[in-house]
Amino acid sequence: MIKIRDLEKIYRTEEVETVALNKISIDVKEGEFVAIMGPSGCGKSTLLNILGLLDDPDNGSFLFNNIEVAHFNERKRAELRKHNIGFVFQSFNLIDELTVFENVELPLIYTGVKSGERKKRVEEVLDKMQIMHRRNHYPQQLSGGQQQRVAVARAVVNNPKLILADEPTGNLDSSNGNEVMTLLTDLNEQGTTIIMVTHSEHDARYSHRIIRMLDGQTVLENIMV
Amino acid sequence: MIKNHLKIAFRNLWRHRVFSFINIMGLTVGMTACFLIFLYVRFELSYDRFHAKADRIYRIVADIKTPTETIPASGPAWPVGPHLKLDFSEVEAYTRVLPDQILFRKGDVKFQEPNAIWADSAYFSIFSYILIKGDARTALKEPFSVVLSETAAKKYFGKEDPMGKTLLMTGDAAPATITGIMQDMPNNTQVKGDVLVSMSTITAKWAQDLDNQWGNYSPWAYILLKPGINARALEKKLPAFLEKWSGKEMKQLQMFVTLKLEQLKDIYLKSTRGEAIGSKKVGNIKNVYTFSIIAAFILFIACINFINLTTARATERAKEVGIRKVAGAVKTQLARQFIGESVIICFIAFLFTLALSALLLPSFNHLAGKTISEGIFTNSSLLLLLLGAGMVIGLLAGIYPALVLSAFKPIEVLKGRFATGSKGSILRKSLVIAQFAISTALIIGTIIVYSQMSYMRNRNLGFNKDQVLVIDTDGDKNREALQQAISRLPNVRSTTLSASVPGGAYSGAYSELENIKGDLQITNLDLYFVDFNYIPLYNIQMAAGRPFSPEHKTDSSQAIILNEAAVRLLGYHTPDQAIGRRFKQWGHEGKIIGVIKDFHYKSLQQPIKPLSMRVEWPRFSLLSVKINPENVTRTISAIEKEFKTVIPNRPFSYYFLDEFFNRQYHDEERFGRLFLNFAMLAIFISCLGLLGLASYSTMQRTREIGIRKVMGASVSNIINLLSKEFLKLVVISFFIAAPVAWYFMHKWLHDFAYRTSISWWIFAAAGILALLIAILTISFQAFKAAVSNPVKALRTE
Question: CATH for A2-223?
């Protein structure tokens, strides 16, 4: 599903040049659950952003479903992104002014799903995540675990082939964290590819494979048994 | 999607009520000011455009070249109108128009009708005033025909039908017949009359030869051209026309005339002629421009607030932008959302603007000194225009913030790695500078307008206008008897009869005067007819010679007094040189017996012109009465009693000369008041914006303030820190505003022949004022932040 070769990303300010990704090469097959680990500043998040088509690389090749996307423009990336990729963030990133229902509905609006169909699908996924009873609440009225469940619901409502999770349990206590990890595992078992950046060895153990990074390069791959 | 956007928009407005309030209030005030100015400008531009044939109506004006000057007259000689119609097939009709005050009586009801007009018979076929009763073609044809407005008809006849009835006209009580009733003339017409009298009355009763007097100038004259006629082409034929009819006379009098055609629609705002006859309404295109520019500025300031507050709040919306982008939104969708939001805000402001405008219109009418609009809800196209304008403002003001917001990179903002770009803050700062530059310039302008007004009121005019009551006898034959009766009253110090008083109408006389070389020089002199007591009563100073005196028999027919300007015109180096020289004027000749010092007999807009004074008893109509300051009301009622005994046929009317003289500055006062009001509005809106920005900036720096306080910063340190940034902008704006304001106000003052100087303190005062207002605005926010508990600030991180 994902094949990157010799990918480079360099951040430049007037005086400093920081190499975030240094000719990195990674493959991810469809249906895999991959964890990416490494110390702060090793380039994990940069990699995730490029994989999520939020950012573009400076050099190298990126095949997504056998399409070269490395130099897609913003509009093309957005088009591909909204149909194929869902995101889960450490800080949930829900819109404060929208209710649970409206937050989950958002991706469907931008993919042009009709209102009746939207309602059906949002309710389905809220039901699955067991937060249906909170549908008319605003994010501030929910606990952290509930907020992250809403975020996961939003990530999957469009049935994406790939979910990118950036430290999804980072702001949660362990029981809520476990709950979210179980949710992700379930989704993976139903066929969704998952790539997750994490600091937590515990969370990483839910994955099939761990890619360890240092200074913008992969240093080690562990296959989980 | 639209539903989702609307929802977000309203929830955002509600969540950030203070910002929304500042935003909407600023826009509302700005739009209201603009709308009112728009109504004013529209009204000024609408003068005399309602006439169906306005495109074909021209006013004939004349430049009269004498050996010494060119006089811009607002009308041609009396015979020009009729003779143009005779000579040129291009001319369809003509009418002369002479505004006047005429005494009318019906039984015991008597009025000195202030809005009377003498007009030729084609008046109603040229202008589109609506005749309700009577025949438009013949109503003003016969001598002693009168057409009344509905208001005048009610005044004289109550519920009676006035058609065919009789009014007694002028002091001679000539009977005149009502031949028509017209709708009241609209406010936006230059010559508004309530009573029209046929011009043929004048030729029938007083001046049979008038239509042949090519040297006699007086009324306004209008012609209606046939369709398709080029006025400029006709204008080119006029010199030959004049040569044919009055060439000999022009040569003999040494007065050469050029006739010009002014399009009716342009007269009110653009013509510089017309003040001489005491025309009632002269607009000023400069005022229209000035206020249009002010309106644009105010709107600009309001839009700046909007842009500044919205972009300043961008950080708060950044997260939303990031999430939406991750969820699949593209830039254009987001831009549309944010522009939509600003349009919504403008729509809300539009609704408030309607309410506020409706509320303020009556006082604005009062402020503008005329009814510019009866109401705003009567005209649906006006409302649509305002709505459209509101939406366009929303679009324009929304574009920049929308572009800024929608361009955020999702990863950065979601990671919180988002800094308010220095680019954005530079733009915000320049916008604040622009706002305050405009406001400061308006403050400077206001101060200068007011100091010029105070200068005009307080300047030594060269005569004494205090405690002088002027009674209009309208030339009644008993005026001298009245003078004697009033002179005997207690508290009356002295009296004088004359044809003119300072600030009022006067004659312009073709004169021949001996100049320094000993030749008789032809010149046009302003002319006051005065009695022996005039110069002492008004305390006009002599520069040479002596005033008129009853002891010199010849003073009543063979003596003239000139002012210094006239003496200079004749080439004399000192006033004394002019004494005893010869003069000829209006059939009289004799010697110059005295020279008076220059005094301001016109408003200070105009320079002091050469003036002559002569004694000529039949010309007198005004009685000036100098009274003691005590018991003024009792004195006036005593005077009124005498008037009613001596001149029973006329209504008693009087005015105080100082008020009468100062009425010449009403336009300037109104201009000043409008200027002041709009300047205050501009400052108010700017301060709203500053308040918003300051509170936002303080909010953003909560953490910094917390850290600084922990490190030992005092309250005044913090206030200083927060205020400095904004006050710097205000100071910069002052240096932009000062030269610009100086330039424009310098030009404005140039319209006044006598003007105050623009001194440095005006700029200092304006600068300090702007700075004080800004400090007040900012320090409230800064103080709040400075005294808050630092622990709280740090905990929010």
Answer: 3.40.50.300
